[in-house]
Amino acid sequence: MDRTSLIAELKNRGLRDEALTGPLYKRLAQTLTGLIQEGLLKPGTALPGERDLAEALKLGRVTVRTAYRDLMASGALESRHGSGTFVSSRVERMEQSLWRLSSFSADMRSRGRLPAARVLSRAVNTPSPEESFLLGLGGDEPVLRLDRLRLADGLPLAIERAVVPIKFLGHDAGGEGSLYDALTASGHRPVRALQRLTAVTLDPSSAAILNVKSGAPALLIERVSRLEDQRVVEYTRSHYRGDAYDFVAELRIGDDL
């Protein structure tokens, strides 16, 4: 819902409806809360400025400001310095198994959510010495560097930075869909991986991309994936939003306990 549609919906619902109670700022807050709960206002949606909304609804600016402050105090809205007021981008936490290798796209579809990828950068060049070692490549063998923002239902959840030998993928890989689907289509499906998790905080640039505050907690996951013949097919560093994910592992108790 864009700003024009929001203002039209607020006018249609009417803040003087008898079903609403309390002063006008409370009624405005109740109406906006209803739109959020109904899914009409999605996480991350920008709201009109106080003056614009006040003029459109013929309310005092203090009324709108007080309603916004109430909703920010409850966590329904958030203020971003220099950008305005937004529906809170906090998300329902998801559990992700550490023992199952799956693509982001497949995982989101299994949850009934619509996955998407926004390419941040894409380049084909030679690997760094560290990447040559990890990927088992010669220094002149080209790799695809693909940095993407991963989204579910339009909400940014992770930044993935993948390095894949071109010989496994081809020069024409675009990066909009599942990288694992592209590898499978080329006959190079990963079958096992080693992952390392580290708790980190997001730098200002990454935080801005993920629509969270600078310094927000995140999980850095470094993954090295292999083919059936043990060749390394992918090296990926991903930053997952700390407010969205819980990574879980099932452990078996040894016989010596």
UniProtKB/TrEMBL annotation:
<dbReference type="GO" id="GO:0003677">
    <property type="term" value="F:DNA binding"/>
</dbReference>
<protein>
    <submittedName>
        <fullName>GntR family transcriptional regulator</fullName>
    </submittedName>
</protein>
<keyword id="KW-0804">Transcription</keyword>
<keyword id="KW-0238">DNA-binding</keyword>
<dbReference type="InterPro" id="IPR050679">
    <property type="entry name" value="Bact_HTH_transcr_reg"/>
</dbReference>
<keyword id="KW-0805">Transcription regulation</keyword>
<dbReference type="InterPro" id="IPR036388">
    <property type="entry name" value="WH-like_DNA-bd_sf"/>
</dbReference>
<dbReference type="InterPro" id="IPR028978">
    <property type="entry name" value="Chorismate_lyase_/UTRA_dom_sf"/>
</dbReference>
<dbReference type="GO" id="GO:0003700">
    <property type="term" value="F:DNA-binding transcription factor activity"/>
</dbReference>
<dbReference type="InterPro" id="IPR011663">
    <property type="entry name" value="UTRA"/>
</dbReference>
<dbReference type="Pfam" id="PF00392">
    <property type="entry name" value="GntR"/>
</dbReference>
<feature type="domain" description="HTH gntR-type">
    <location>
        <begin position="22"/>
        <end position="90"/>
    </location>
</feature>
<dbReference type="GO" id="GO:0045892">
    <property type="term" value="P:negative regulation of DNA-templated transcription"/>
</dbReference>
<dbReference type="InterPro" id="IPR000524">
    <property type="entry name" value="Tscrpt_reg_HTH_GntR"/>
</dbReference>
<dbReference type="Pfam" id="PF07702">
    <property type="entry name" value="UTRA"/>
</dbReference>
<dbReference type="InterPro" id="IPR036390">
    <property type="entry name" value="WH_DNA-bd_sf"/>
</dbReference>
